[in-house]
Amino acid sequence: MNLYSEHYVSQKTERFVNKIWCLDNSIGESQIENKLVLPNGCFNLAIVSGNAIEVHTSKQKYEMNEGIYFCSQMTNKVLVNMQPKTKVTIIQLHAWTLSMFPTYDLSNFTDSILKVDSAELPFQIQIDFDIATLLEKVNYYFEELNNSKLNQNTIEKICEIIRIQEEEISVSEIAKKLNSSQRLLQIKFKATTGLTIKKYIQILKFRKSVDQMINADLEKMSLTDIALYNKYFDQSHFIRKFKDVTKASPKTFNPNSYFLSQKR
Question: Which of 25, 63, 210, 214 is the most exposed place for a label (fewest CB within 10 A)?
Answer without folding.
Answer: 63
